[in-house]
Input
Amino acid sequence: MKAPISWLRDFVDIDEDIKRFCNLMTVTGTKVEGYNQAGAEISGVVTGKILTLRAHPNSDHLLIADVDVGDKVLQIVTGAPNVKIGQIIPIATDNSTLPKGVTIKKGKLRGELSEGMMCSIQELNLTKHDYPDACDDGIWVLKEDTPLGMDIKKYAGLDDCVVEFEITPNRQDCFSIKGIAREASAALDKPFKDKPIMLQEKGKGKADDYIKVGITATDLCSRYCAGIITDVIIEPSPDWMRSRLRNAGVRPVNNIVDITNYVLLECGQPMHAFDLEFIEGNTINVRRAADNEKIITLDEKERILDRSVVVISDAKKAVALGGIMGAMNSEITDNTKTVLFESAMFDSANIRISAKKLGMRSESSALFEKGLDANNALHAINRACELVELLNAGKVVKGVVDVHKHLPVPVRIKLDAKRINQLLGTDIPVADMKSVLVKLGMRIDKDDIIVPTFRPDITGCADIAEEVARFYGYNNIVPSLTLGKSVTQGYRTHNQNVRKVIHDTLIACGLNETMTYSFISPKNLDKLGISEDSPMRDYLTIKNPLGEDFSVMRTTMISSMLKVLAYNTNRSVKQGRFFEVSKTYHPAEILADEREVITVGLYGDCDFYDLKGIAENISESLGIKDVEYVADRENPVFHTGRCANILLDNLVIGTLGQIDYSVSKEFDAPEDSYILTMDVSPLYERATFTNTYMPIPRYPSSLRDLSIVVDRDVQSADIVKTVKKAVKGILENVTLFDIYTGGQIEEGSKSLSYSFTFRAKDRTLEDQEVNKAMDKIMNTLSREFDAKVR
Amino acid sequence: MLQLDVMLKNAEREILSATDMKKIEELKVQYLGKKGELTQVLRGMSALAPEDRPAAGKAANDAREKLNQLFSDAEKIISDKAVKERLYEERLDVTVPGRKQDIGHTHPLTQVIRKIENIFIGLGYQIAEGPEVESVHYNFDQLNAPDNHPSRDEQDTFYFDAEKLLRTQTSPVQARVMENNAPPIRIICPGRVYRADEVDATHSPIFHQIEALVVDKDITMGNLVATLKLFAKEMFGEETEVRLRPHYFPFTEPSAEVDVSCWVCKGKGCPVCKYEGFIEILGAGMVHPNVLRNCGIDPDIYSGFAFGLGVERTAMAVFGINDLRLFYENDARFLSQF
Output
């Protein structure tokens, strides 16, 4: 909302320095976005009268003028065709500045001194809309009675400071000069000057002689006020009005249209003006449009309507889109003689939906959307009539045709000073509270506050507390860190700790944490090769996504991680080490089943066992020891020979492996993409952070190595299990330290090398004992797996 | 005994001139070996008169000790010198960078969330979580959002159907906590939220919020101000100043926007704060009585405050990041800077 200071001064005396004014408004809740002077760039331009004009001795088209600028006479050389003796014109004097960084200095033009420059409206950043009488391609000729030596900024209203306010959606009343002025009166602690409306009403007859008003769509329009102006003379509105409109960001048009815009800005009530000559049957009816009803709006576009849109119609046709825009068929023209002013109240939600549907948000619809005060409509139309008389734009006919249902009534709220102070933590006297509330337009009736209908946001004690606090100063409230009377304990829950440990473990593994979008394209599931009947195809679909790429909630993290790997490898990052602990989303009866998942992605200088080591680090960090890994050759996403399911209590809790080459190709990810996914929720239950010390062994261990050759498909985990079963007691540990295929090993076989650690708790083991155990191991392995010593 | 003296003198000269262990070993054999010179002298003693033998024996032992001492001294000198030479030979260019372990990096957004969590855990708050796929009821109705509030539009909010949506704020978690717990309540709610904004340098359809909620008897706006001040100092530095401006949020009344003094220029004005000295960082207020009532808490007995901030905005300000997209691109060269 742009508010010229001069306009605000109609309602409150503002003599503060502009910075102080802006700061006071901001800290009391009417935030200033910025301010500027329309003519900030202009200086040293004054009014001057042309005393003499003579030909330039060295030029055919230049003239030399003597110009009286009040305190002196300047010699100015000009090439303008429209100058005449006796004209009063703007003169940019020596060292003056103009918009776009132009500086004017005195100098010689073809040998003759010129002590400045005569200005056109364009050179002062004005347009024909601002000054319709100004010459198009010559010097701007000012009014005859203009004093000499006057600053042009003052003449043209360019010295007005325009402040831009951010208005919060609950304060529709502040989308108006009066609303902001009322705030300013409380912020500056000065009275609010609300002048009563004075009308002469010289038009013939009464308004209802001219027009009948009916509202058919009573649900969409709660009030319609119509006023009549006769003997209208359409002409430009006066300079002061055009200057204010221009400074508030509205283009001046003609007196009648300017008045409607002026009232909109000043009172916050949208208005419309019809040429009564084109209103057939002297009737206005507010009704729903018919389906496919057509109307050409003032922006010269044809609109096709339906029953959800409210229109203003005469006896035969629609003449306006209610609350949004008028129609061409009843537009004010230069020949308009009789005007019908409309000031009405439309349903905010309906206007918002209609404006959006028709793709035409106007100043008017933007205001109606916010929900206005129906009581303001009558005041607005009277103000418009008052301006008509002030501008001599026509004769106001007596009375307003006012059709309405129930009008809002002021709300009564008890002023509970004790409770307000309790809520704020302050000690503000009741009298101070009352004083603020009165400045804001409220009335005090003993212990009650009567809230005017333009403040529908105030409904209870908390709202009153805010009004009081705003002007007491939020920053004057004394801080107190003693919260109530109870003590609470802050901590992370078990599950939150589990998540933190997982996170810290993955960081320690050298992985970088990523954050990926929760929604994906369903095409990603095709790219992953997920079968049509997979549960992953059962996803939540967003009704209004930003695009296909963001249209369904992910049911797997793999595509998200593959994209991270692809993004990095395509930017020549040689090695990727990433993780994310995030969610997948699955349909459920209530809301959704949101599952937390750990995802790890690696590429570059890594293999399956690097990835598996990370999985093992996770479970170990949570004190979970009995995790199993079982080969999975069926998972379509992974390399058939390099994929394992992670099992906890015989339940698959995750999968890890190298990504199938065709899948990584689909995602443009590297061939050596390794991904691990693991559900977090099964870990919550099993995670334990209790830790018991195991004594360090007192007796030495015996180490034995054994290399065997077995069939390639024999699983090492089975060998280890079998060995541990065969030799109990003294076998402390079995570790695989080498795996080898090729060379001297028969095709279809592999060589596995294990290191066995034997130890007894109570004695040093004899060689014999260990040898016996090794024999047993070898015998078992050759029996069970057809293993041969290498 | 003259013979011994001569031998010792020769030995001393030769030992002292030896420069390596090999020479020392040779000299040991020469003097102390089975056929060595001392042995020869001792053997010659058998020709002595019995009464002269003890003195001769003592002299011979002295000589042996003396030789041993000479040898061990010489060995020490030689080995010390060898160590010194080796140390010199093995010298390195210590300015060459070390071999670092790859340590992973926590995402900057997680870092900000963790930091805030830790501040509030210290103040007796717990961390509350809730679903991202939410109901209209919890996301809007319970939080006093007017029926025709534009935030309810499909233009702003992602819907699955008329009732189910992606939460647009972490506030529904507050409503859920208030419904299920009696005061005193002190929680913070971090999490992902969603709004239908196209991706650009300052917008993302997915971002993070963190909110705090306190509900108890006698909670005042003074408590809110104090908590915000403490939080700002912990988060942005001891000298940080806090400024509240009245604002509007449907779920709080009174409501405030909160600016903190710029941590770069300390309020003097710089590009980070756009020369304003202060940076808007938080929304805050006293919990609206309607919200308390909706969640089954009597606003005549209890009051509360709440505040929330955008994690991305905060991280961008704290780390000097100028493009929000970087958080979700997951470029290793970005992630590894934090």
